[in-house]
Structures are given as C-alpha cells and as structure tokens.
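Re: weekly structure request thread

Next one in the queue (539 aa):
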Amino acid sequence: MASSAPRSRWSKIRLVIKVVELRLRFVALLAATGLAFAYWDTIQNRYEKWMRPAHRAEAAHVGSEFYCPMHPNVVRDESGSCPICGMPLSKRVKGEKTPLPEGVLARVQLAPMRVRQAGIRTVSVAYGPMSETLTTVGTVDYDERRLKRISSKIKGMARVERLYVDFNGVEVEAGQPMADLYGAELYQGVRELLLAQKRAQGPVGRSAGGDPSEMVGLSTEKLKLMGVTQAQVDAILRSGKAEFTLPIVAPIGGHVVRKEVVEGQYVSEGQLMFEVADLHSVWVKAQVYEDQVGLVRVGQEVEATVAAYPGEVFKGKVAFLQPHLDPATRTLEVRYDLANPGHKLRPGFFATVSLKTPIAETPMFRGRIAPARAAIGTNPTVAEQEKCPVTGGKLGSMGDPVATETGGRKVWTCCGACPPKLLASPARYLARLDPPPVDGVLSVPDSAVIDTGALTMVYIEVEAGVFEGRKVVLGPRNGGRFPVLEGLEPGETVVANGAFLVDAESRLDPSTRPEPSREKPAPEPAGRAAARETSTIAR
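Done, posted below.
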C-alpha cells in the first residue's frame, strides 16, 4: 500500500488558521448570544419604536386636558370645576408635568395599603411650651455689696495697741471690736469732746467761744470723721474719761478675709487693716459664649451645683450681664446671685450653672413671632386676615373669597370647598387665626424632619393618603423635637414616622417634585462665606 504524500508547509499553515477560525466563530456566537440576553429589553423597545406608525407617536402628544392645581389627581377631558374644592380647572397639554402649588416641594399619593405597610404615622402640629437649657461653668466669688474694708481714718500715724482678730477666716459680728488704735489726733479729739460737754453742763452758759451745745456737736462730728461711731461717742460722754485707745469695730457680720496689720504696727490714714465679707449671699460668675447671650436675661432663675455637695442644688437669679465681651475668650461674664445657707458655697469653688429659657422668649422667636401675635377681630376684612385658615393660601388666589360664620365670628376662606371643612373642625382651623400663647411654640418631632443640606422640609398630610413636602425654618434641636419658625400652621398633620419613605417615593417619580432650580440652597452666613473666600485666596 502506497503511503500518502507528506503535507506541505503551506497546507499545515492553512489547517492551523482554519482551526483558529472555527474556535473564534464559536466564541463570537457565545458573546452575541450573551449580549442579546443582556440587552433584550433595549432591543425590543427600539424595535417597537422603529415599527410604531408615525401617526401614533404624534397622536400621543396632541390634545389637552384639564386638572385642578390644588388636587392634581383630578383630571378631566373637558373644562369645569374641581369636584373637591370647586376651583376652576386649569388647562394643560396631555403628558405635561403638573406644576406644584407655591411652597410645595413634592406631592405623593399612596394607597391605604402602602401607608400601612410603610408604617407611616402622622401627628398634629400644636403650640406647646419649650425651653432651651444652657449649661456653663462658673466660679463662686464674694458678693461685692456685702464686702467691707476697714481702714484707718485717723489723721497722721496711729498705732495698733491690741488685736482682737489676729488671723484670717475669723467670723465676726457687726459692732464687734477688732483692734484698738492709739493716735494723738484721736486722743485730742476725745479731750475736746469731754471739754465741750463740761462747758455745756456748767453754769456759765453762753461764752465768747459760742454755744457749748454746738461745740459738743462739732466735736462729735470730728470724731466721726476719724471712724468713731455714735455708740462709742455716747459711751465716752457717759464715762467722762478720755481713753488713750479706741476700738475699731466690724461694720458688718461676716468672715475676715484679709488682715493687714499686727500689734504694735503704725498705720497711716487710709491704710487697709481688715476686709470682712458676709457669705450669707455669694456671686457666681459664669462665662457665656456670644451665641448664647440671647438665652440669658436679668431676673431669670438659675440653678448651680458644686462638686463638694453632689446632688444639692443652689437656686438663684441672674443679677447682671457685663456690657462688654471678653475679646480673648469671646465670652460674656454673667453674674448670678445665690443664697448661701450655712456658708456652704465658698469663694473659689467651681460651679456648674444651668438655666432654662423659654424658646418663645429667645431673640430668634421674638423677632419672628412677636409681629404675628396681634389678634384678628371677630369681623376682619380680607386684607386683615390675608390667609385662608383651611388651605393656608392667600385670599383671592383662587377666586373671590367666601365668608363663613362660625363660633360668633366671621371667617374668610379662599374657595367654596373650604367652608364645609371649616364648619366640621372649627377649633382646628380657627387656631391658625388666633395669636399664639405667650410661651407657646410650634414644634415637630425630629423624625419628621428631612434635611437635604440645601433645605429642610417636612411632609404634611393634606388629604387621606396625599402627602406634600413643605420647606420649613427650624430652631435648634431641643429634646427630640425641633421648634418651628416658619412653614407650618397649628392643626396641620405632619408625617412623624416614615417621612424618609415618603420622600423616597416622591423621588422615584420625578413628576411629583419641582424643577431643581426651585430647590435653591440656603444662603450662607456672611461670616462663613468671608472665611471661605479668605481660605481660597490663601490657597
């Protein structure tokens, strides 16, 4: 049997190329199959769009419809009035995005089953007292009004003959002798007093030197200028003796906090000898940062605690606010008056000071709420009332206002659908026209607040299952709640639990949210902006 002819080199190369080609075709087929499965929906949509007749695509954008601006779920093919609020329906092109009312950031409508599944819970907004607690550190100090300094009033030099108080910290009573002083001027003054008394009691009566009784008075005044009390003058007149020394007595009861003399020392006129402090009342000087100064006012009740007596609270009142700020620490010194029974609070103690300020009395609320506290009369005009208590919209924005009598007062509403709601719940809606209580503040739970960084919003339930996002201006957080400065009215219902789920639902459908241009970021404080610009220039 003849053997086959050997393959040439070119034949071998062609065989290898054919094998590689077959394998590449297999790989390409697998890749095409995978891509077809992965992008099947896209391919199908493009195919349907390509095969769709041109007249059908044009018909989808031709025509108009009518809707209610307050109730976007109401859509009709013909013009008319809204069956819910009676407002005339607005016209729009079919498929056009529904514009949201002024002030509404988003609107979501959920079925009752969805609301239950999401665990959405709402609460009513109402006025209530809220307090801002300020805690700071202070130091106990002497009450300067109860601090007395005893100095020598004897002209020239006087000698300390005897000390009755010979160390600091001794407790003395008012009128108690503290030291005996001897001075030539003092002794001479006592002699003049006794001589004037002797002349006044003698048979001579008036003399060339003047009235003796008047001379006694002049001598008495001279001794008082040297620090002699009226009681000491009376004692000198009763004894009729001129002592070489005179006791210096304590002007008030308290503790000797400074002793500047020793026995045998000579003191000059005006030289300090003792300092006595009454510790029945003390001062607490605390430092308050400048952004907290608005929370402090004179007469406000304050509580203080010290480490020496844990659990014991010392109550007092704010007595004084320094008129200037410390430029080094950017703090203001605030002084509190505290009673000190048993002298427990000792000067030098550190104290933890806390006070509560009603939020309604803070500057941010006084500036925003005080102008709105004016009550509306029982028969207001449209200009005086301004807003509809039911919808919160401006009167006249939905046609001619409608007047309604309830509770003996006349109330204006924005449209014909509002009076039935007003009459069904008069207390709820009339609360929006009454001035807020003196210490009342609107507040919402912190779980109801959605802070996007650019704005702060809450969701309110305008109807069963219909939620609207509204921008609000809030104060600082206080115990799990935020006080409301602007954006809400009493009686409105906000989403307390599930607010983020409602917000996520609104983001899934862009038609329920306004254009991005409407969500403008909050203005940056001038100080922070200036600091940021300075930092940028430095870089």
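Residues 9-38 form the longest helix (30 residues). The chain has a mean pLDDT of 79.
Next request, please.
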